[in-house]
Amino acid sequence: VENVITHRLSSRGIDPIDLFGQQDIRLRAIESEFDAKIVVRGEEIIVTGEDDVVQQITKVLRELMRSVKHGQTQEISDIIRASRSVKEAGEDAKQPFAGEFLDIMSKRERIRARGPNQQRYLEAVRDTDIVFSIGPAGTGKTYLAVAMALSALRRRDVDRIVLARPAVEAGESLGFLPGDPQEKVDPYLKPLYDALNDMTPNGKGN
């Protein structure tokens, strides 16, 4: 088979049961979604398969390790969903994609959907009153939501934008965070403010 490679990752410092589950059930879940082989030898994870598949598995494994290091438990359903999302993104990358452009500029360029998932997200925000979006950090969920809000404000579809974000996430207590109430809430709103400042003249998103 052409383009078969072997890639090694280190799981040093992570409890193997926390990472892989009993009888490596989490690894088997990942392996079942891809045409590749995953072997664990001590603190080394060895992935063998076609180049693009190995890259996709590596991405899933790194995200799994990051979650475990932060004390987050990944259910099998979460791992399967993440694997399929990575596979879908890989297939999308092979196809030319012309995403919808919004009437909002960032400091660098006009904002647009950069893949089919983002395009579906924009359409959902436009067509429905409430949208629940689940996905890895850094995939544009917050940024595009702010862009859509500014676009609606510019078109006068809405009179104002109200920023809201949970101040307490699962397993956290606001009372134990440092600072006064405003200082405790600010970190949760910062991604929204950062996006606004990137899309408004001179960064004045107030």
UniProtKB/TrEMBL annotation:
UniProt keyword annotation of Hydrolase present: no
Gene Ontology cellular-component annotations: cytosol
SUPFAM superfamilies cross-referenced by the UniProt entry: P-loop containing nucleoside triphosphate hydrolases (SSF52540)
PANTHER family (UniProt xref): PHOH-LIKE PROTEIN, PROTEIN PHOH
InterPro entries: P-loop_NTPase, PhoH, PhoH2-like
Species: marine metagenome
Primary localisation category: cytoplasm
Alphabetized Gene3D superfamilies for the sequence: P-loop containing nucleotide triphosphate hydrolases
All copies of domain PhoH-like protein, residue ranges: 111-201
The keyword Nucleus is annotated on this UniProt entry: no
Molecular-function annotations in GO: ATP binding
Keywords assigned by UniProt, alphabetized: ATP-binding, Cytoplasm, Nucleotide-binding
Protein name, per record: PhoH-like protein
Similarity comment: Belongs to the PhoH family.
Subcellular location per the Swiss-Prot or TrEMBL entry: Cytoplasm
